[in-house]
Amino acid sequence: MTPDSLTEPTAAGQPMPRRPPGVPVEIAAVSQVFRRAQLETQALERIDLAVKPGEFVAVVGPSGCGKSTLLKIIAGLLAPSTGKVEIAGRLVSGPYTDLGIVFQSPVLLDWRTILDNVLVQIDLRGGNLAAYRDQARALLAKVGLAGFENQMPRELSGGMRQRTAIVRALIHEPPLLMMDEPFGALDALTREQMRIDLEKLWLERGQTTFFITHGISEAVALADRVIVMTPRPGRIERIIEIDLPRPRHKAVITSRRFTDYCEDITECFMRHGVIQY
């Protein structure tokens, strides 16, 4: 068993065991400095954050403030210059495998069907493909892709491909989901439907979720807490608790309380000159 993994396949070809959803994440004094030749760039400055198991946290901030850098550090893809990250009480010292990641681009394999693109996650982890086939079909149906299992990625729209990427990230039931601008390249209508679908999946499965976005209203609509970042070097300007009922239907996202949260975050960015009228 790898030290960074909470669960592994019990034996080659066997289903991976089910786990309680969600894990705590502790980020302590994390800073990141990039050096190239004589140039030094500080991307992050002393990030401290404790995330509860099953919490949905959205990180919102301007371009270049270190949001994606923070995600890579949490996932163990980048070592911080200072500080540390612990997941479920274990120090992250290398790539952390017991998670799902969704990027802005779906990164599907062109030569595999939609169903096989989902199951590649199980294949790479040594799981039993047959045991997960029905689950993959059920998840695809939940995001509106029933009947498209045998299509190729090139035959689907951008939104459908991104739904496939989300299902692929969730198929192995990870306790931690990392999402880096997953809806950034989508049109407004598709983006809103994806937001609705993601909330439904999260409410059902309860994994700890980090969601990086530039969208203020998107962050408020999805998160339990919104982490507001300053321009580079990225620091946590504010942490805003979102006290809104779930699921967040039209009545919620058109309410005065929802608007107040969005205005509060907007004012944070105005103080830093990120938004100017």
Strand order of the largest sheet: 6-7-8-3-9-10
Number of DSSP strand runs: 10
Reported for the largest beta sheet, the result is:
6 strands, mixed
N/C terminus separation: 55 Å
Helix content: 25-40%
- The topology string of helices and strands comes to EEEHEEEHHHEHEHEEHH
Low-confidence stretches: 1-19
Q: What's the CATH superfamily, by name?
A: P-loop containing nucleotide triphosphate hydrolases
Number of helices: 8
Helix-strand category: alpha/beta
CATH class: Alpha Beta
How many domains? The number is: 1
> What's the Cα radius of gyration?
19 Å
Mean pLDDT: 90
Proportion of beta-strand residues:
15-25%
Please give a handful of descriptors for the protein shown.
single chain, about 280 residues, alpha/beta, Rossmann fold, 6-stranded mixed beta sheet, 4-stranded antiparallel beta sheet, 8 helices, globular
Task: Explain this structure.
- The protein has 277 residues and is α/β, with parallel strands linked by helices.
- The strands form two sheets. It has a six-stranded mixed β-sheet, with helices on both faces.
- The protein has one domain (52-79, 90-271): P-loop containing nucleotide triphosphate hydrolases (Rossmann fold).
- It has helices at residues 67-74, 114-124, 129-142, 158-170, 188-205, 216-222, 250-253, 256-271, and strands at residues 25-36, 39-51, 56-60, 82-87, 90-91, 100-102, 176-180, 208-213, 225-229, 236-241.
- The chain is built from eight helices and ten strands.
- Mean pLDDT is 90; it is low at 1-19.
